[in-house]
Amino acid sequence: GLSNTKEMLLKANREGYSVPAFNFNNLEQLQAIIEACVEMGAPVILQVSPGARNYIGKDMIPFMAKAATSYVAASGSDIPVALHLDHGPSFEIAEDCILNSGFSSVMIDASKYDYDENVALSKKVAEFAHQYDVTVEAELGVLAGVEDEVSAEEHIFTKPSEVEDFVSKTGVDSLAIAIGTSHGAFKFKPTDDPHIRLDILKQIEEKIPGFPIVLHGSSSIPQQYVRIINENGGKIEDALGIPDKQLHEASKSAVAKINVDSDGRLAFTAGVRKAFMDNPAEFDPRKYLAKGKEFMKKYYKEKIVDVYGAEGA
Ligand code: G3H
Ligand code: 13P
Ligand code: NA
Ligand code: ZN
């Protein structure tokens, strides 16, 4: 069955790694994620954004999660698997995911509200979720780029002075912070020095020692996938992400969960585009989707080692 993220995240911090939190949107992506994590012996948080929830259909989601945990058990693996709502926009959606879709963990993203409203809504979700043994992630600070349909021009870094008050008032189980990451494939300009503010992370950690911290917007935007996409009829320009080395550093700290979505999309697209170009006469979706799945699975396996340090955890 599914696990909540409580022990997963605490264990990651005790042992100096972080837990892969991969967004999924369809069967092939879920297969790639779960096969990669089983083969690497890594715990996994399967994340569903509100957009993914609409795309998959909310009634189908618990059965996809069930398929994933059944696959793990049938493989003889004992990796913990969580089903997590990513960027939950309201109490009502978090409640529906908990009561009707079997989620073991939810994020309430009230980072767009002012501090007191963020505290109040995050606390309300935490109190409700904990009755069902469901863990809760909340967010302080605002990531640049598009987040929850709100777009911020500038990063609003999490203030280290607020985190202790926030986690004690809300009772949440983990805290997403903004330290220079952003969602999507265009995190930096070609003229930037791509980096995250590990100095702010350190200040945050000192305020809430050992408390599980979450990084969003952490795709590394591997250039080989951008190149394959562009060599096979695509056109993606100036896509840049977070260097793996910095995320690996963060994994050794109190960062216990790192979210990746865009990289999976790039790997999938690269595989499918290549399959189409290599075999123009092919029209069996199983053939080209298998190539997309193969690219994603290879990516997830590499990332588990290079970023999370979660292999054999
Ligand atoms: O945080 C954003 C995630 O990558 C989800 O993206 O809303 O397009 O599913 P989405
Ligand atoms: P990326 O767009 O960097 O993959 O971030 C994903 C994320 O934060 C999901 O919540
Ligand atoms: Na960690
Ligand atoms: Zn996110």
From TrEMBL:
Keywords: Metal-binding, Zinc
Keyword field contains Zinc: yes
GO molecular function: aldehyde-lyase activity; zinc ion binding
Cofactors: Zn(2+)
Active site annotation, chain numbering: D86
Residues annotated for Zn(2+) 1 binding in this entry: H87, H183, H216
One GO term (biological process): carbohydrate metabolic process
The name this protein goes by in its record: Fructose-1,6-bisphosphate aldolase
Organism the protein comes from: Oceanivirga miroungae
